[in-house]
Design goal:
The protein is of the alpha/beta class. It folds into 2 domains: about 240 residues, Rossmann fold, CATH 3.40.50; about 240 residues, P-loop containing nucleotide triphosphate hydrolases (Rossmann fold, 3-Layer(aba) Sandwich), CATH 3.40.50.300. It is built from 15 helices and 23 strands. The radius of gyration is 30 Å and the shape is elongated. The termini are far apart. The N terminus is likely disordered. Keywords: Hydrolase, Kinase, Phosphoprotein, Repeat, Transferase. It is an enzyme of class 2 (transferase).
Length: about 500
């Protein structure tokens, strides 16, 4: 028998799916079988939902499941499952403390509760597991055992006793804990084979944010760090932190047209797949219109595209585009264009990255517009996180061969302009749109100041937007300091667009 145990010790157990695709991705396949795991989090973090997901995945795999509850009733669990559209048929629910267990007749004062009730509770757990002989077990929750023990040593001994018992039963166990212990009490972490921590926090405005972290998974590799998740009808939806180095795809890097010959010339031949372009300028100068012109050109080539709108309402954008002879409605109806209104107060950064990844890998999107980074910034806890998130997201899109357009609004109209965040160093191409004044008229200019993939045109061109779309003029040769916002005009200029 001892030789058999030694042989089994060296074997890596099979990975059991948790029923949550994103979590299984983080765990590199799932939880190793026949181990004991701790799922910790404050009340409302999603522990029960995760545990039910785990048992339902076992039921789908024809594995028996047992949910032992010390705090909730069976009716509450059934109701919680029903809210997700689940049925718990085939999963055994066991209330360790019956309703009459709280009656005064069952109270005793001769012995300390930790000497009697704790032992009875642990024996009840063991007895039920021996009777049901399940493959997957959930114990909810440890806070009741901790209160009964009233002594750290006695509590640890009982948890160790349960761990050794489960180790002989060939079952996989999730133990839930609501963090009612001292903040620095990590004795459960040392006992469990793995620890999954769930967190949720509320900001001053907007919906609460949830994230999880695998603190420990003994002897196995996993994707560390924080990963955003949401609780939706159907259970937990986890958005694994995007790691660009894990995603590579071959693609044709030939430049594609923007739909405007003059703009292609400015860019040195057009937009190159696998690169991102930052379109920067003050409000109303034409950043969105320029991005939509590039978008329509891709749609006309038969490519699929996605437009993530943070600032405007969809109806406003569609009306404006239709007035400029760039109607997007039929592309949306055909499914070729995915136009989404994004509320930064409701969407976490991880969820947005997951949305983009799904659009690329599942929907075949080839061009993406983010309008604008200013609003996207407000979804982040700090500027540093925005830069790190954008770096990973842009690296991922680059390796997938996606043409990415990002719009960045600047504060001010003329003179020195200021941005909420500077990510120009992350961009492969930077396009500046500016206002300038000539002959008593407010005009607009366009210049490409950086392109990593081609020898771009270094001139500044005037452009105009009317009902026929964008019209780009010849290089402005008689102006200086246009980009500074304080242009100097000398000797006239025959290259100005007429009729403005």
């Amino acid at each position: 028998m001892s030789n058999l145990r030694n042989e089994n010790r060296g074997k890596v157990p099979n990975a059991l799916p948790t029923g949550i695709a994103g979590l299984d991705h983080i765990l590199m396949g799932g939880l190793p079988a026949e181990r004991l795991y701790l799922v910790e989090g404050t009340p409302g973090a999603g522990k029960t939902t995760l545990a039910l997901n785990f048992l339902l995945a076992g039921r789908d795999a024809v594995e028996s499941g047992l949910y032992i509850t010390l705090s909730e009733t069976s009716e509450e669990l059934v109701a919680a499952a029903a809210s997700h559209g689940w049925s718990l048929d085939g999963i055994e629910l066991y209330e360790l403390v019956e309703e009459d267990g709280f009656a005064s007749d069952n109270e005793q004062t001769l012995l300390h509760p930790s000497e009697v009730e704790l032992g009875e509770t642990v024996r009840g757990i063991i007895s039920k597991v021996e009777t049901a002989n399940p493959s997957r077990v959930v114990l909810d929750s440890l806070s009741e055992l901790r209160l009964l023990a009233q002594n750290p040593l006695r509590y640890r001994r009982q948890i160790l006793a349960l761990k050794h018992f489960f180790a002989k039963r060939n079952c996989t166990v999730l133990i839930l804990d609501d963090r009612t212990a001292e903040p620095n009490d990590l004795q459960l972490h040392s006992i469990a084979h793995g620890v999954i921590s769930l967190e949720h926090s509320a900001s001053d405005f907007g919906s609460e944010r949830r994230r999880l972290r695998v603190i420990k998974l003994r002897g196995l590799k996993y994707r560390g760090g924080y990963h955003d998740f949401t609780i939706e009808q159907g259970g937990l939806r986890v958005y694994p932190r995007l790691i660009a180095s894990e995603h590579h795809r071959s693609f044709d890097a030939s430049a594609v047209s923007t739909g405007l010959a003059e703009l292609d010339a400015l860019l040195g031949g057009g937009l190159t797949p696998g690169t991102n372009t930052l379109i920067s300028g003050p409000a109303g100068v034409g950043k969105t219109t320029t991005a939509v012109r590039c978008l329509v050109s891709a749609l006309e080539r038969g490519e699929k595209a996605a437009y993530y709108l943070f600032d405007e309402r969809i109806a406003t954008l569609l009306t404006r585009c239709a007035a400029l002879d760039m109607d997007l409605a039929h592309y949306i109806e055909s499914g070729q264009l995915d136009l989404r209104q994004i509320d930064p107060a409701e969407l976490s950064p991880g969820e947005f990255a997951g949305t983009v990844q799904s659009a690329v890998e599942e929907d075949g999107i080839r061009l993406i517009v983010i309008d604008s980074l200013n609003a996207y910034l407000h979804a982040m806890p700090s500027d540093n996180f925005l830069v790190l998130q954008m770096h990973e997201l842009l690296s991922y899109l680059s390796q997938q061969g996606i043409v990415s357009l990002m719009i960045l609004g600047q504060h001010g109209v003329t003179g020195e302009l200021r941005s909420d965040v500077d990510i120009s160093y992350l961009a492969d191409t930077v396009m500046l749109l500016r206002y300038f004044e000539a002959e008593g008229t407010v005009r607009k200019s366009m210049a490409v100041i950086k392109t990593r993939t081609s020898d771009h045109e270094r001139t500044i061109r005037e452009f105009n937007i009317d009902s026929s779309g964008i019209k780009i003029g010849q290089p402005l040769t008689k102006f200086e300091r246009i980009l500074s916002g304080n242009p100097r005009y000398s000797n006239g200029n025959g290259n100005l667009l007429e009729g403005i």
